[in-house]
């Protein structure tokens, strides 16, 4: 199913159940986490990228919020469609890869390794954080 959203709309809420994956067809999205009144950007997502796949295959709740930065068109893929379309062995293999990525993320975080030459998402201004908190 195709969904269209105007700018500044929350698509995914941190902590929600993960039962859908989205493919971005058009537009730009912001991935962010909220800690109290602080909004920390994590990534910017654009056309051809997916959102929600990590939590979906790991069977966990959403780890972050996702909001549209511009008018956006998404292809929504629900769990039933995924399970009907993907062979069981491929589903299990994808889950295994996602579990390994989560494990490696934890190992990297514990070791204190910093990534070099990685595009970073610029911090949000106080005004931008306030406007996002108003949306939540």
Automatic annotation (TrEMBL):
Residues 1-86 form the Cyclic nucleotide-binding domain. InterPro entries: cAMP-dep_PK_reg_su-like, cNMP-bd_dom, cNMP-bd_dom_sf, RmlC-like_jellyroll. Pfam families: cNMP_binding (PF00027). SUPFAM superfamilies: cAMP-binding domain-like. Gene3D superfamilies: Jelly Rolls. This is Cyclic nucleotide-binding domain-containing protein. It comes from Halobacteriovorax vibrionivorans. The lineage of its organism: Bacteria, Pseudomonadati, Bdellovibrionota, Bacteriovoracia, Bacteriovoracales.
């Amino acid at each position: 199913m195709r969904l269209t959203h105007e700018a500044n709309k929350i698509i995914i809420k941190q902590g929600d159940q993960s039962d859908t994956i989205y493919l971005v067809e058009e537009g730009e999205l912001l991935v962010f986490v909220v800690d109290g009144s602080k909004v920390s950007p994590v990534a910017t997502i654009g056309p051809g990228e997916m959102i929600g796949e990590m939590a979906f295959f790991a069977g966990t709740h959403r780890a972050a919020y996702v909001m549209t930065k511009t008018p956006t068109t998404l292809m929504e893929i629900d769990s039933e469609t995924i399970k009907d379309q993907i062979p069981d062995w491929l589903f299990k293999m994808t889950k295994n890869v996602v579990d390994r990525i989560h494990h490696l993320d934890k190992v990297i975080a514990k070791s204190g390794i910093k990534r070099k030459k990685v595009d970073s998402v610029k911090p949000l201004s106080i005004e931008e954080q306030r406007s996002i908190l108003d949306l939540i």
